[in-house]
Amino acid sequence: MKNSLILVTLFFLISFQSFAQNDSVKQNEWKFSGHVLMRSELDGKDFDNLTFPPSYTLMRTRVNVEKNLFDDVSFFIQLQDSRVWGQTANPTKNLANIDMHQGYIDIKNIFNVPLSFRVGRFEIEYGSGRILGPNPWNYVARAWDGYRIRYGNENKYFFDAFSLSHTALTDPTKYPFSAKPDTSFNIYGLWSTINLGEENKIELLSYFENNNKKTDSVHKDAELLTAGLNYEYKSGNFNAALETAYQSGRSLFGGIKNKEASSYLACLKIQYTLKSITASLNVETVSGTKPTETETEKTNTFRRPWGTVHQFYGYLDYFTGDLTKSTNNLGLNDVHIKCKFAPKESPFSIDFALWYFMTNQKSASGKSTLGEELNLVGRYNLHENIFVEIGGGLFFTGEAMKEIYNPSKTEKDISFWSYVRLDVRL
């Protein structure tokens, strides 16, 4: 943490020294914008059609302020209120939950080279967002405190180094005396994107999770390295993408036992667009742990808590969380087909997706089929900044899924989920 503070201070001193030589403040107007999201959901995902499906409405409101201070210095602030309708249980009560979702300063062209620096609180997304992303489907979404250094041109290549703070060491207003053990949690990483002409792109990722808390009094809750290599090819209407990642180190998997990790993730997407129709075939494997090894000191279950996952693992979100729970530590394999119909001159579009899920490792009883999921989403653009979306899905349980979700009830009904969404960008 001391090294991080020194680096941040050094960048500010160097940057503002260069601006002092040309301190003309840009007289650009302030930029104001906003975003309102409302989504009502009907949730029948318990595989029991005799129970009452709960319904609720989520709402997220954002107000953005942006200003260029100097030629190469700008700041951005995003205030956010996230709530569930009726959450206060009293119309005269407030949640007092308006928060600064993002607030950062950007400094560009340091030393008159393509070197930039972002510091504050900000969303972070790399590649498809599968491993590191803001997860905007969540009505709060994800943002980090930290800084990011970038070198290069995004149209050709760029290299990022970042430091993200998950949990603070201490609250300075309540500093303990004597000092308690370090329980801070930080993530340090590198990312690079290299465009090889107009058709080929390579992405490299590496980040280290360092959670100093010791739940078992012996090992840190996380000393985990994730490294990945992605490749994308685009030619005309054809697109192919390969994403891979490997994890090594230790982590408190499932919040139960600290284990030594060796795990992987790999996915392939092949996509083709023909006039108004875009279709893709997607195959993915996320490693899991054999049932005979769940009580050992090692795990092969891939950890992926920081990604934008809703779009990749079925819209009913059975497998977007911790795989130690949603698949009983068995990992996940899936094949899915997506098809989008979006006429160019029409405000209407429709998305269809069909998924087949299996565990990466068989259960103790030899089961592996989780089930099939069907999703359908329709969107109508009322304005270029306003749209209404109606969607939903069905899930047909497999034998492995029956063992995971309420195993005492052997007969499982088809589960369902639906939503209506209004999205307004101001």
Short description:
The chain is mainly beta and 426 residues long.
Structure description:
With 426 residues, this protein is mainly β. The protein has a single domain, classed as Porin (Beta Barrel), CATH 2.40.160. 7% of the residues lie in helices and 52% in strands. It has three helices and 19 strands. It has helices at 2-20, 323-326, 399-404; strands spanning 31-44, 55-70, 73-84, 99-107, 115-122, 144-153, 157-167, 185-196, 200-211, 222-235, 238-253, 257-274, 277-286, 298-299, 332-341, 348-358, 369-383, 386-397, 415-425. It has an 18-stranded antiparallel β-barrel. A hairpin with a 2-residue loop joins strand 2 (55-70) and strand 3. The longest helix is centred in the N-terminal third of the chain and has 19 residues, at 2-20. It is globular and about 65 Å long. The chain starts with a helix and ends with a strand.
Low-confidence stretches: 18-25
Count the helices. How many? 3
CATH architecture: Beta Barrel
What is the N-to-C order of secondary-structure elements (H for helix, E for strand)?
A: HEEEEEEEEEEEEEEHEEEEHE
How many separate structural domains?
A: 1
What attributes does this structure have?
18-stranded antiparallel β-barrel; single chain; Porin; mainly beta; 426 residues; 52% strand
Provide the fold topology.
Elements: H1 2-20, E1 31-44, E2 55-70, E3 73-84, E4 99-107, E5 115-122, E6 144-153, E7 157-167, E8 185-196, E9 200-211, E10 222-235, E11 238-253, E12 257-274, E13 277-286, E14 298-299, H2 323-326, E15 332-341, E16 348-358, E17 369-383, E18 386-397, H3 399-404, E19 415-425
Parallel strand pairs: 12-14
Antiparallel strand pairs: 1-2, 1-19, 2-3, 3-4, 4-5, 5-6, 6-7, 7-8, 8-9, 9-10, 10-11, 11-12, 12-13, 13-15, 15-16, 16-17, 17-18, 18-19
